[in-house]
Amino acid sequence: MIDSLTLEEFVFAVRWSRRRKTIGISVARGGALALAVPVGCSRRRLEAAVRAKLPWVRVKLAELDQLGEPQPPRQYVDGETFSYLGRTYRLHLVAKPHGAKPPGSSSLRLYRGRFELDRAAAGEGRERFVAWYTEHGRRWAAARVAEHAPRVGVTPTVVRVRELGRRWGSCSAKGVVDLHWAIMLLPAHVADYVIVHELAHLRELNHGAGFWHLVAEVMPDYRQHRTWLKRNGHGFVI
């Protein structure tokens, strides 16, 4: 079994799987190309399937070029900036965040226009920020869902804020709405768009004309928020 496949100017890493029945193609943020291939797939079938998807691969790579270079990893040092609902705040490492209670309470706090992080917890900076965004996201999202859901004409059964990988949100036919904690880094109106988008899916589990008509009824300017998210969303990482 081959471990790579070259077609025209593209080189794909090949991962074989006994669980797969179809050929999957992925384009990583850095431009790396990969194939997930069922064991037993012939070279001829694989090349034909990939060749048919080359136009899609070119489009995805072009989109990545427009986004620019991936953001460097955070260092969690004094002066580093972090977003919260579209506004930027500097990080300040302190002996104890202002207003912190005894050990075991929060080691991260937004106070007087800056994030304060317990210096002793800087090595776990990402975990502390994720926990902070998740906690505040639950309260913020609950209020926004309560406002938008009646306008969409739905009643979610559960609204959760959690890690969703590369997705900003998802929903299920059972009325569960999941939102990525990272929506708290976005401008509020863009985060609102993500919420309206997922609520609309509770009525329209697709991206057909009916779905977008519903979104437009609730948020007439949704197109500019969708475009902004597509162009800038990649930069909101921690």
Structural summary, described in words:
- This protein has 6 helices and 11 strands.
- By secondary structure, it is α/β, with parallel strands linked by helices.
- The protein has 3 domains: about 60 residues, no CATH class; about 45 residues, no CATH class; about 110 residues, Zincin-like.
- Strands 1-2-4-3 form a 4-stranded mixed beta sheet, with helices on one face.
Give the SSE map.
Layout (H helix, E strand, L loop, with lengths): L3 E4 L2 E8 L6 E4 L5 E6 L4 H10 L1 H14 L13 E4 L2 E8 L13 E4 L2 E5 L6 H28 L5 E5 L6 E3 L4 E5 L7 H14 L7 H10 L3 H11 L6
Parallel strand pairs: 2-4, 6-8, 9-11
Antiparallel strand pairs: 1-2, 3-4, 5-6, 7-8, 10-11
Number of strands: 11
Mean pLDDT: 89
Strand order of the largest sheet: 1-2-4-3
> What's the structural domain tally?
3
**What is the overall shape?**
globular
**What is CATH's topology name of the largest domain?**
Zincin-like
Question: What is the helix tally?
Answer: 6
Order of helices and strands: EEEEHHEEEEHEEEHHH
Poorly predicted residue ranges: none
Classified by CATH, the class of the largest domain is: Alpha Beta
Largest sheet: 4 strands, mixed
Strand content: 15-25%
Between the first and last Cα atoms, what is the distance in angstroms?
38 Å
CATH architecture of the largest domain: 2-Layer Sandwich
Based on CA atoms alone, the radius of gyration comes out at 21 Å
- Structural class, from helix and strand content? alpha/beta
CATH superfamily of the largest domain: Metalloproteases ("zincins"), catalytic domain
